Inverse folding.
């Protein structure tokens, strides 16, 4: 698990160094996988109706409810590797 955690953290750093910004759907997927891997299932109140970005992020994370944190980390690392490779 320690090795996976290290890969997860390295992937997050590599993502920040991307030359081209991924499309919004990919960004939401990355956000949700990162949150699920780092924190587990979605928590807190859903943002208000007029907070469109916050609501989209919350909904993307909520769709991953029940996904094991380790699996989320693996998917996150794989997606970042695809974007950077």
């Amino acid at each position: 698990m320690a090795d996976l955690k290290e890969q997860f953290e390295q992937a997050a750093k590599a993502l920040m160094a991307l030359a081209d910004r991924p499309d919004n759907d990919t960004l939401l997927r990355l956000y949700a996988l990162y949150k699920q891997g780092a924190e587990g299932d979605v928590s807190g109140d859903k943002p208000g109706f007029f907070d469109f970005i916050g609501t989209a992020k919350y909904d993307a994370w909520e769709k991953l409810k029940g996904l094991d944190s380790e699996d989320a980390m693996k998917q996150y690392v794989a997606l970042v590797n695809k974007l950077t490779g």
